[in-house]
Amino acid sequence: ESVDVDVPIRVAYDQWTQFESFPQFMGGVERITQLDDTHTHWVTNIDGVKREFDAEITEQHPEERVAWTSTSGEAKHAGVVTFHRLDDNKTRVMIQIDWEPTGIVEKAGAALGFDDRQVKADAKRFKEFIESRGTATGGWRGAGRVAHRAHRRPRRRAATTSRSPQGSRFKPGLKCENACLLTAGSSRCRL
Length: 191
Known about the structure:
The structure is a single chain. Helix content is 19%, strand content 34%. The protein has helices at residues 9-16, 103-111, 114-133; strands spanning 2-5, 29-34, 39-46, 49-61, 65-73, 77-87, 90-99, 174-175, 181-182. The chain contains 3 helices and 9 strands; from the N terminus they run βαββββββααββ. By secondary structure, it is α+β, with helices and mostly antiparallel strands. It has a 7-stranded antiparallel beta sheet, with helices on one face. Strands 8-9 form a two-stranded antiparallel ribbon.
């Protein structure tokens, strides 16, 4: 899913790295706790099904991309978000969330596209959230495994390939606006 937000790329990226603010715009997310530079703990509640899991931030390149994957707990979950500067005050945010449904109700919901509609609704709420504020609630500007606070502009590092969980549902053939082709098992935007 993609959404164009009327804020500079730095603002959009900085807000997305504030995992603890996700419940303000992401449906079904009750709480995310940042444990350290690269680890988070998630609590979700989707249609009365409560789950907890830990996740690792596997990639973080300022103003380009952030990716995470679950490492333990009740849910297999991964995500990657890429940021594309459209102009000084407009950014395209591309979101891919991958999760493995369990149980008949979740599998039926996934088959009917409910999870895709949820990501679309979350993207819309992110747009409303960030545009109403005009600024990020904070920022964590990690690069690979080395983290930098938002107040410093880090050197750009070479991008690394993100890890994707087994059975990935990333959509083959999806292209970003820079004509990057995302293929099955690859969520990397090739800018």
